[in-house]
Amino acid sequence: MPASPSRPAAAGTRAFALGLLALANLFWAGNWVIGRVLRDAFDPVTLNFLRWAGAALVLAPFALPEVLAARGALRRSAGALFLLALTGVAVFQSLVYLGLRSTTTINAVLFNSTGPIFVLLCSWAIEREHGTRRQVAGMLISLAGILVIMSRGDLGSLLALDLQAGDAWILLAMSIWGVYSVLLKRRPPGLGGVAFLFVISVAGALMLAPFAALEALRSPPHWPGAAAAAGVAYVALFASVAAFICWNRGVAIVGANTAGFTLHLLPAFGTLLAMAFLGESFHAFHAAGIATILAGVVVATRAPSG
Fold this sequence. Notes:
Blueprint lengths: L2 H35 L6 H26 L1 H6 L1 H23 L4 H8 L2 H13 L5 H18 L15 H18 L9 H26 L7 H29 L1 H6 L3 H13 L6 H18 L5
Helix pairs in contact: 1-10, 1-12, 2-4, 2-9, 2-10, 4-8, 4-9, 5-8, 6-8, 7-13, 12-13
């Protein structure tokens, strides 16, 4: 009888984690749209610097007491924290913003769907963890749904996709994200989510600051308009603070491999956001693609029976 209450609790915890991961993908879907919109307002490194400097300022009042109390643990984990800040903060999003300058949103979102593949590969290369048959099957099902949306229901049109130079940057960014997701298990165990995010935000912003300063010297910055400022506020508050707290907590509960498959939700959310804010029409292929993506995520992330 004691096992009976534990199972619902475990199932509830898993559902909560998957909900957090889905919310992170929703916030990131908005980031990809805004990154494309702001491509002419800011260079990639400057936009990324503003994003994480803003996130650090927001997090500071909540995180500083815990960070100061955990100075010893931070020193012992300095190497891991450096790698997490480098991959998840400084490099990954700079590459995404760089890619969005020279590729279409469709191509970028399509290549974003390679994220789960890179998480699996990095899990094997770094931790020697292997994906299960269910995870591979779910990944392929979700990928099929993404292809349905990207091809607008005509899979033959994928052969005519116009590949851009930025596609390579997006693909490289997703491989870096795979490394970050796997390295998350090496974060200091006693450091809470907000404090951890603050530490890597500060470290990442410091890494980006010299490059942003050089860009400012090369091309003096101009004061952004209200729309651009609102875009920066969104990527700092929602795509950085809220999304990363949700993602890091979700990964801690279900693991990098399972969490990686929820990245296939991002194209589905991107489609819905485009319809809500850009006035794009809803078609049958949208419904079919989103349903297929969700089916793949359910298959890949379902807890093993027994």
